[in-house]
Amino acid sequence: MRGKIQTKVSFVFFIFLALGVIITGAISLLLLKTTIPSSQIDSVISSKLVIYELLSMAIGFIISYFIGSQYIKRVVAPIRELAKTTKKITRGELVKSEPIKSSQDEIGELSVNFHLINKKLEDAIGELQEKNSNMDAVLKSMINGVIALNKKREIVMVNPFAEEIFGITQEQVIGKTMSESVFSKNITEKIDSLSIENPRMKFEAEVNFPIYKICSFSCSIMTHPEDPTKFTGIAIIIQDITEIRKLENMRRDFVANVSHELQTPLTSIKGFLETLREGRVEDKATRDRFLDIITIETDRLFSLIQDILSLSEIENKERQDEKELMETNEIIDDVIQNMSQVARIRDIKLEIVSPVKLTPIIGNKKWFKQMLINLLDNALKYTSDGGKVELIAKEDDKNLIIKVRDNGMGIPKEDQPRIFERFYRVDKARSREVGGTGLGLAIVKHVAISMEGRVEVESEIDKGTEFTVTIPICGKNK
Ligand code: ADP
Question: Is the pLDDT confidence value at 41 over 70?
Answer without folding.
Answer: no
